[in-house]
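Worked example

This section walks through a single chain of length 447. The input is the sequence exactly as stored; nothing has been trimmed or padded.
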Amino acid sequence: MTKTSTLLAILLLAALFVSAQNASQSEEYMRNMAIGNKALEMGRTQDAINAYKELIRISPASPDPYLILGNIYARNEKDAESVELAIYYYKLYLEADPQAGNASQIKTKIYELEYVQKDAVKAQELQKSMIGRWASCLYTNDEGTDYVLFDFTEVQGKIRVTIDPASMVGSQGLGSRVAYAERSGDEYTFAFTEDKTHVPSQSSYNLLHSLLDMVPGAAGYTSELGKNLGHSAVASMQEKDVIRNSKRMYQFYLKESNGEMTQCACRELFVETTHAGQNVLRDTMFTCMLFAVDKDYSILPPYQAWIRNKYRINTALQSNHPDIYKLAKSGADLKGWGYTLTGVGAFTAGMGAILMTVKTQTSADIDQEKADRMTENNKKAGKYVTAIGGAMVLAGVPMICIGVGKAKKSKALYREAGVINSQQKSEMGRAIMLKAGPASVSATYNF
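Given that input, the structure is written out below as tokens.
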């Protein structure tokens, strides 16, 4: 055998080996493609993913597995990892087949997923910013009781909302004080429900009838008539007092403001069964702001809450309107000193007047001459004391007038600045929430 014949034989054997190998790979490729398609059809997504990834190993240059994997991962846009993988496989598909007929559609899909990815990152940042304790800008009364006080925590990627039982909403008969916030667009929503049932107390009406029977009957006909009327009234009340159900739902909507979920809208839906058995629906909605507070922030007893509320209000006003605040505080100080001087002065003058009328009586140790001298000294001392008191009153009254004038002017300026009532002052006080525990708030200003 010549060298040429040997070379030809070797080439022939190599060609046969390559052909056999290609046939084997083609068979494996077809098998995995069929498995992947059927698994996908049956809803076994992970088996399908494994089969398509095997296709990429067998034939990295084939574009179809990349496209299919991109489509699979693109289905779950709510999962950040799936979105990232979808973009990754779509780009590999375009690299494997740049001239693909659907290249423009795939590029559009990539752009859309990149936006979803960016929005998901933003949502994660917002979700992180929500973690902690938040209080509302609304108070339910002048004592400073918070309308709501929320604790936001993250549990398995979800936001769990716990409402403080000392807040106004939390103090209601809620079915649960825990809810989970759901994200929809740029909003987070969650709700708390209250369900109450009024059951008439038979023992209470029996007690009323017993008390009426205990009324003495000595007065004759009049007394018996009164008893009968009383029994009739109690029976009428009992007839109207039926089982009544009332349901209330507090629906909260949180929106982004300056990178934080601080804008809050609350919708109260209240359904009550009347005495006539009719269901009456009341639907109210209002907005407020939420502000981050320290974890040890708590709702205080009324008096302490009032002190903190006033402190917060004045802190906010001093920061937002320093000139008006200075005017208001100086007016308050003048009024305070004026009232003090006037009151003390009036009391002093009164004591002086009394002292002027005191006459010393004669006794075994005091003769008439000494008594007259002591009486005269009392009159002189009374005149001095009355004069001092009068001077204090004369000084205090103008201070009161000036202080009142400054207070009126400051209120007018506050009104022009949009601060016209205690509610708006409270909201402004919340706007500059003190980053300190309630124990550190121990001062207040009055104006």
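What to look for: The CA atoms of residues 83 and 123 lie 14 Å apart.
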